[in-house]
Backbone:
């Protein structure tokens, strides 16, 4: 029934060999609508806003992330985006102005199926049990993969919905002219929220490689799969953080020839968190060797009487662990600049500056939601297609983990520049300058168990440093 439903008849033959070639193409459909308004209410008050709405539909010629190259199931990507930028400014006095801005950006992405000959749901009359009977809530067809170059069938990691960002920035800026000084101060608040479904196959995944008959299709017809895996839950996670920045700046016109720009900005950057703290990390200092299992020469775990499968696993806001696995970061960021006209005639200028800023990089904690105990999967060998529960469990081996470094430092960027401009005869302008940027503490994922050439890795542990 599965072959008849999801495998189309051959459309190409070469001698005695028959095959199916997918000649389909991708289809892209886009639309953008924009509305812009600028209005001066009076001489002192002005506002403007721009609203833009995007709709992007992409239809793939095959199942895409669904895994199958055949066109009976096609991946349909639906993206909707919204951008709103609003600004208002008011002249409070001849020396002072206040500006308020609001910027909003959001999008939703849904990776779905379009039925072109078959439905992703299990055909009526298909009697295949799941190891976790309540996991496949969408009643999707199991993933069937074949070795030796045969196209597979099934739905793999689709659908993925929802996946969206909803972010906004509120900012207020005030400026005041005091003699030779132009003073500015302001504050901005970034609110970030992301919702995304996790990649997890809950409909079951069978692999046929010819172990039993030397041919994967023959194994399938007998219902004898080499391996089987299934996730226990198709879950959605929401991530978020709120970042605040405040600043003060003085543009000081010392003389006709010299101007200084002096400023200071304070970054308050918390770590991204997951709603309900549904993520975990591995912390070496929390690992108790007395609770660790032994590992034999074949790389198989041999649990002892004190074995703890969550040994070294920590969760946010438990046992002193901060939210997001790191404390809120306070980042001082000085700024300095100058402009100098040696002769005061506007024909030669020397400008320079230095500034520090911090990045929100390091907030990618999506890998930590798949750590134990949240993402439970079963892996079996030598299973029957109609009921995988009789398969042989894989030998217990070390689990691949993702971890957040307890010594994490916020990425910092320092920038500096020096330029000289000279007006030349014939309305030519010569300019020479140097611009430098140095970044430190960049986000990087490190494989702590990366093997030395010729050795055999036991497990994989990735740490965000």
Residues:
């Amino acid at each position: 029934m599965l072959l008849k439903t999801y495998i189309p008849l051959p459309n190409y033959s070469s001698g005695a060999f028959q095959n199916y070639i997918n000649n389909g193409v991708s289809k892209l459909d886009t639309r953008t609508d924009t509305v812009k308004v600028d209005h001066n209410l009076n001489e002192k008050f002005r506002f403007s806003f721009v609203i833009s709405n995007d709709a992007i539909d992409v239809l793939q010629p095959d199942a895409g992330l669904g895994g199958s190259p055949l066109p009976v199931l096609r991946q349909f990507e639906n993206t909707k985006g919204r951008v709103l930028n609003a600004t208002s400014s008011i002249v409070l006095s001849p020396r002072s102005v206040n500006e308020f801005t609001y910027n909003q950006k959001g999008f939703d992405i849904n990776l779905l199926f379009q039925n072109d000959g078959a439905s992703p749901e299990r055909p009526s009359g298909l009697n295949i049990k799941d190891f976790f009977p309540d996991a496949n809530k969408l009643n999707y067809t199991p993933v069937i993969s074949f070795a030796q170059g045969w196209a597979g069938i099934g739905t793999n990691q689709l659908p993925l919905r929802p996946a969206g960002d909803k972010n906004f920035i509120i900012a207020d800026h005030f400026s005041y002219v005091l003699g030779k000084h132009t003073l500015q101060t302001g504050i901005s608040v970034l609110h970030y929220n992301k919702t995304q479904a996790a990649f997890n196959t809950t409909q079951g995944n069978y692999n046929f490689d010819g172990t039993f008959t030397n041919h994967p299709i023959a194994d399938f017809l007998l219902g004898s799969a080499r391996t089987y895996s299934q996730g226990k839950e198709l879950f959605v996670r929401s991530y978020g953080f709120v970042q605040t920045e405040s600043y003060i700046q003085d543009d000081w016109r010392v003389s006709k020839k010299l101007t200084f720009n002096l400023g200071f900005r304070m970054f308050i950057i918390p770590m991204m968190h997951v709603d309900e703290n549904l993520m975990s990390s591995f912390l070496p200092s929390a690992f108790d060797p007395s609770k660790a299992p032994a590992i034999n020469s074949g790389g198989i775990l041999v649990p002892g009487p004190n074995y703890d499968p969550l040994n070294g696993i920590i969760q946010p806001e438990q046992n002193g662990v901060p939210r997001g696995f790191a404390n809120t970061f306070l980042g001082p960021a000085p700024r300095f600049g100058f402009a100098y006209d040696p002769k005061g005639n506007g024909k030669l200028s020397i400008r320079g500056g230095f500034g520090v800023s911090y990045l929100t990089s390091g907030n990618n904690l999506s890998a930590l939601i798949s750590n134990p105990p949240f993402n439970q999967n079963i892996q079996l060998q030598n299973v029957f297609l109609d009921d995988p529960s009789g398969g042989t469990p894989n030998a217990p081996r070390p689990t691949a983990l993702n971890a957040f470094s307890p010594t994490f430092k916020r990425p910092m960027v320092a920038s500096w520049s020096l330029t000289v401009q000279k007006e030349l005869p014939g309305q030519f302008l010569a300019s020479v300058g140097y611009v430098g940027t140095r970044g430190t503490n960049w986000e990087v994922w490190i494989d702590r168990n990366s093997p030395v050439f010729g050795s055999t890795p036991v497990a994989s542990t990735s740490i965000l440093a």
